[in-house]
Amino acid sequence: MLSVASNISKMSANNVKPFTVFVEGNIGSGKTTFLEHFRQFEDITLLTEPVEMWRDLKGCNLLELMYKDPEKWAMTFQSYVSLTMLDMHRRPASTPVKLMERSLFSARYCFVEHMMRNNTLHPAQFAVLDEWFRFIQHNIPIDADLIVYLKTSPSIVYQRIKKRARSEEQCVPLSYIEELHRLHEDWLINRIHAECPAPVLVLDADLDLSQITDEYKRSEHQILRKAVNVVMSSPNKHSPKKPISTTPIKITPHMRIL
């Protein structure tokens, strides 16, 4: 059972403030694969999306219910997503670096936004979810130092989704993937409808598995070097224990649009 209050209390008692990276991208963009690449580094906490919790809440598969009947279950599903993601955000980390798959920001600015625009959510339901999001923003610190955006083409990730054959996703149409792509682009690249809480590092995630590892290696410099700079300026000086020898790549600057 989740214990959000307990985790928040533990975090407050722990002075460790890790360099936090949100790994964002469309369904099927390779977020889990990206996180697994960084398992080779010591002193990095990896937090994957709590999909198994969404698939089994006291025997109920909320993810499947949401995909099969979104008008009925979207509000319930997104409420639970907010709870589980908040628990991940506030989970204590004793390491200097924390990589997290998705965030409350993408839940609100991409997925809830899509449900609102497509009338999946009643205006009253959307208002409740939005008020919860705003309350969390103003009352519970959600720290981010960097966002890694795994940029993909909708047609490519659609084929990946079909290939991985996750049962709940088989009813997902290409149009849904295309709409989510536009929302990610508007949030992280175009900056036209939502707040971006940290600088954005854009990686080409259309590459196949034989090439994507090299792309991920190129990101090590930006992620780990920036992390080292942050943690070495704090009292708790524990830097990642692997050398960094890759070439820097461009990061989109931090920008806030209210």
Automatic annotation (TrEMBL):
The residues covered by the Deoxynucleoside kinase domain are 22-219
Q: Which Gene3D superfamilies match?
A: P-loop containing nucleotide triphosphate hydrolases
Q: Which residues form the active site?
A: E101
A GO CC term assigned to this protein in UniProt: mitochondrion
| Source organism superkingdom | Eukaryota
The UniProt entry, under SUPFAM superfamilies, shows: P-loop containing nucleoside triphosphate hydrolases (SSF52540)
Q: Where does ATP bind?
A: G25, N26, I27, G28, S29, G30, K31, T32, T33, R160, I161, K162, K163, R164
What this protein is called in its record is Deoxynucleoside kinase-like isoform X2
Q: Which organism is it from?
A: Bombyx mandarina
Its gene?
LOC114244024
